[in-house]
Amino acid sequence: MVRHYLSVNQKQASLLQLTNGLIDSYGNKHLPLQYYSRDLLMSWEARNHLVELNLRHLDVS
Questions:
Q1: pTM higher than the cut 0.70
Q2: Could you say which of 23, 37, 38, 58 would form a disulfide bridge with 27 (CB–CB 3.0 to 4.6 Å)?
Q3: 55 with 34: CB under 8 angstroms?
């Protein structure tokens, strides 16, 4: 997500603007629940290991 954001917004004038824009775009604390079910996200497995997304794939296009 960060790589995609930076590639699309690389014309921003400063690191501060890029950082603030990234937070505005992806700073929602509920964002992970768009990609992981709550049960999976709160599971022991997910808290201790990298787990596959189970609701939708990352859109990196």
A1: no
A2: 23
A3: yes
Cβ atoms of 22 and 4 closer than 8 Å: no
Structure token digits, residue 22: 């990234």
Percent of the chain with pLDDT over 90: 64
Contacts of 22 (CB under 8 A, 6+ apart): 2, 5, 6
Q: How far apart are CA 59 and CA 57, in angstroms?
A: 6
Q: How far apart, in whole angstroms, are the C-alpha atoms of residue 32 and residue 42?
A: 11
Q: What is the mean pLDDT of the chain?
A: 90
Matching residue, tokens 């954001």: 5
